[in-house]
Design brief:
Elements lengths: L2 H7 L4 H7 L5 E9 L4 E8 L7 E5 L2 E4 L3 H12 L7 H11 L4 H17 L13 H13 L7 E4 L5 H10 L3 E5 L2 H13 L1 E9 L2 E8 L8 E6 L11 E7 L8 H11 E11 L27 H8 L13 E2 L4 E10 L2 E13 L1
Parallel strand pairs: 4-9, 5-6, 5-10, 6-9, 10-11
Antiparallel strand pairs: 1-2, 2-3, 3-4, 7-8, 11-14, 12-14, 13-14
The structure holds S-adenosylmethionine.
The site of S-adenosylmethionine (SAM) has 19 residues, from helix 5 and strand 6.
Length: about 350
């Protein structure tokens, strides 16, 4: 955890935020390994003695989720997994674990997002194929126009490319928040060593390790934290810009994510939201889908219409209070590569917002 980010952004206890709406500052607790610039191993502790929740900082990543024990129960094994597997042995183990294993599910995620986020920098990838999320972000930012100076929050940052782009484009501090430890580790390696290393899926459970040089101006202004996009652990109105690229249909409550963006954006600030509305019950209960059901309802099941109402103060019982759309929404291709012979081609709906 970069101390500059900690001191400037003043994170708050996600548990107190989620349970009572209180923004209680976190303080540094134990520091086991640190430099003058960052803490590698240590804890952050809630400043409210009645809570006193202790959040670990692991390998430089603070884990700031409301349900810490729940996240640890599901992901804790990843924190202690070795990261030095040679490429061929990773393949041997992948074959042994089999296609339905968590090991291979993680490799698929790393392959899909590693490729889209950094494949455009790989001399072996034909130009114009990878990089779709950056193209969506660029188009949205161009239309959003000038923003006040200040920090940027990248919700659901995944493998991290958008966080680096936001640092380059805005000149501010950027924090990328995600719940996925392996993707965040990929992002941190780019941040720390200027290289993206990930398994690229050929087919089945055959993967090739890719190592792509990825250096970004302003990488020293980026940090990656584990956090829930619906409860970003920061005081209200802290960010000049909030980005949420392709995460709205991945959360349990899309209105809660919209409220979080609304609450995080500073007065005069902006937000950019992209989503392919690719609903699935693994992430979001049907009742919480924005459209995609209730064809006989007011919005005739149209996702864009429900989203537009949620982003218009007063137009829906769960509408945001401050943000409003800036210009017409855009629809742009967004690609998720599955393997050498399969890509999922989405049409991402991109909305630019201002407070
Ligand atoms: C479809 S991926 C998009 C990744 C990246 N933004 C992009 O567009 O390439 C969704 C990302 O959101 C993350 N995510 C899902 N639910 C989240 C939550 N509640 N809080 C933070 N991140 C979340 C996932 O781990 C994943 O990295």
């Amino acid at each position: 955890m970069r101390l500059g980010h900690f001191e400037s952004l003043r994170p708050v206890c996600p548990r107190c935020l989620a349970t009572g709406g209180a923004a209680v500052p976190l303080v540094l607790g134990m520091v086991e390994e640190a430099t003058a610039e960052d803490v590698r191993w240590g804890t952050l502790v809630c400043g409210d003695a009645a809570c006193a929740m202790e959040y670990p900082i692991v390998d430089g990543v603070p884990i700031l989720v409301p349900d810490l024990r729940g996240w640890m129960a599901a992901n804790g094994h990843l924190l202690t997994t070795r990261t030095d597997l040679p490429a061929a042995m990773e393949g041997v183990l992948g074959d042994g674990f089999g296609p339905d294993s968590a090991f291979n599910a993680t490799r698929q995620h790393l392959s899909s997002y590693g490729w889209d986020h950094y494949g455009d920098l790989d001399p072996e990838t034909p130009p114009g194929e990878a990089g779709s999320v950056v193209r969506c972000l660029d188009a949205g930012l161009d239309r959003l126009g000038a923003l006040p100076a200040g920090p940027v929050l990248d919700l659901g940052c995944g493998a991290g490319r958008t966080s680096f782009e936001l640092a380059e484009r805005t000149g501010g501090l950027v924090v990328g928040l995600d719940l996925h430890w392996p993707l965040l580790m990929l992002a941190r390696r780019v941040m720390e060593r200027g290289e993206a290393v990930f398994p690229l899926r050929r087919s089945g459970i055959a993967y090739d390790r890719r190592r792509i040089e990825a250096r970004f101006t302003g990488a020293e202004r980026v940090d990656f934290w584990i956090g829930d996009a619906m409860f970003p652990p920061f005081p209200p109105r802290r960010f000049a810009l909030v980005a949420a690229m392709n995460v709205l249909d991945c959360v349990a409550s899309p209105p809660a994510l919209l409220r979080a963006i609304d609450g995080a954006a500073a007065d005069g600030g902006g937000a950019i939201l992209a989503t392919p509305f690719d609903w699935s019950t693994q992430a979001t209960p049907v009742e919480a889908w924005l459209g995609g059901h209730s064809q006989r309802g007011d919005d005739a099941g149209r996702c864009e219409a429900v989203l537009a109402r949620l982003l218009t103060p007063g137009a829906h019982p769960q509408s945001v209070g401050r943000l409003h759309a800036e210009g017409e929404a855009l629809d742009m291709p967004w690609t998720v590569r599955m393997h050498d012979r399969a890509c999922m081609q989405y049409l991402a709906h991109i909305v630019m917002l201002r407070t």
